[in-house]
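New here. Invent one.

***
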Amino acid sequence: MAECTSFIIDVSERMIQTDKVKQLLQYLEYTLLEKCEKSRKTDWVDCFLTNHIHTDNSMQLENIYELQKMEAPLLGSQCQEISKMLCSLKPTDGINTDEFNTIEQCLLLSTLQIKEKFHKRKMLRQIMCFTDDMKSITLEDSEIDEMLQEYTGRFVLVDCRTTNQITKDNSSGVTGPENSWFRLISKCEGSTIVKLSELIQLTNTPRPPVVKPVRVFSGQLRLGAELTNIAMDNISENISDTSCLCINVEGYPATKSISGLHRKLKTKNDEIDNKNFNNHYTIPKNVIEYEIYPENNKEKEQKSIIKKETEEGQLPEGVPISSKSVAKAYRYGTDYVVLPKMIADELYYETAPGIDIRGFMDQNQLPRRYLNSESVFIMADTRLGSIGDVTSFSALVDTLLETSRIAICRYVQKSGADVQMCALIPLNISTTNLKKVSTNNTLEENNTHVRTLIISRLPFSEDERITILKDKLNNEKVKTETKDQEELEQKIDNLMSNFVDSMSIDTPNDIPSEQYYQHFEEIPKFTNLPLPEQTIPLTQDPLQMYAITPFAQRQVLLDYFHKVIIEGQNSSEFTPPVLPENILQKIDPLHNGPSESMLNDIEQLTSILGIKKVPIKTEDNTLSNATDRKELEYNITEEAPPLDELLARGRRD
């Protein structure tokens, strides 16, 4: 969806002296660079500086400086100018900019420019104001209503006040219900007030991109169909067959990998054109080109020609040909044969998209080692299907759940794809908690569950690697373990379980299971402006996936942009930043060291298992302990046993 964002920044002397401008610059650079990276032609941005000593705007209103006009897409050079301008702001001598108070006029100016620029165009309009003065606007209710009639957007007020300012304003009654900012935010739909510290926290927190559901499968789920009808893709016979049940379904990916930053492959040219230095790097062609070279009957003549041309410094030139003139040949003896199209098509097994259930089994009988493939959610097709498809699909899922069974199916994702054998696992997701945070009223009250089948690929026999282990329960030897040994093993298991739990990077016990799923109606977001979400805390959101590599790359680019491009630091002296503390605590459970109880458990575990501590080596790569040095010298001088003895040691009885 198209959107326009107008940034209004209060650059009064109080904001500069308290370093609020530098703090908001961190969020502003993060937001603008993200918009530059996406380069959307429908994402418009402008920027105003209020309470400024200079005047530059379309209506020549005093002390309002238009730093960036409304343009899309935003360029990197424009982000550089905005950052340099904000970094160069310093307190003025002899001029008290706190008395200007031009935020109200800047709000009116921004709303008028947005209306004149876009008129009645359907888009999201938003004005984001950074200030620490809650008395900066004095609008009556009638004036607010008149403004909202002209401006069909929302306001985002960023509270930049310090703790002392908040205490002072609360005691004086400035932040009461009669405050103009609060009345404006409450009357304008979608408007909100956020703190500057929350926005800065967003820059240090990974924000995984919202995965839009992309349909990867569309076809029929068939039960009781004949394989001959499947191969011929005879849909009419499947429908007319009384013993075949056909349900129109669609599939969405349940897992999606997060790629790194966008990269472009370029080749470096050694020869640089003095007139155009951009020719130093060129983008290679992705289209494959074919060339043919002249062939000679006699090898001697061919070798002499190549030798002669290489001595002159010129290689034989090839003649380019079209890809349509190239045919695939098959080796037959010492020659190559090109098959006609009618015979070549028979080499491939034609498949049609569809899911065919071949049988059912108890869900406890399926080995868990098979459930490791990329999963796909199979749902009833609501776009091309009917009510009968939804009803029959729901009945199938409910029946599988009641009988605790799963289905084994033949799965073809698209035309011409390989045939896969998969397991269909039923799942019923409750949407009651999703409706509490939902802003869409299309969900009916009786639709409290979403029924789906998770499809997981099963390996074929040639793909499976089986390891036969001795089963303790089926051991024919007499069990000689005493009660003390059982208690000791149970103690070891408990200590090891606590140690493994202490290394976890998540807190699954504190997160309700319903929060691991998100209804697809809630996924599309209407703005690219990073704002804190009020539904689930960032520290308890299981969807907050930590893809460290893309996040670290973005942090390095932001720091490089600020220090090298804005501040002019030498690129050779640039050092990459360290990951934030909250990220280190997430990816490294022992970042702050284990607790005392955990240390006691580790000591008990090492003493019971008889684990030996690894000796510490000094800087000259020698052992510090005398006994360790003696043992190392003994191991070095000891001769290796013969091969027959080694094979005898490894032979099983």
About this structure: Residues 483-502 form the longest helix (20 residues). The longest strand covers residues 420-430.
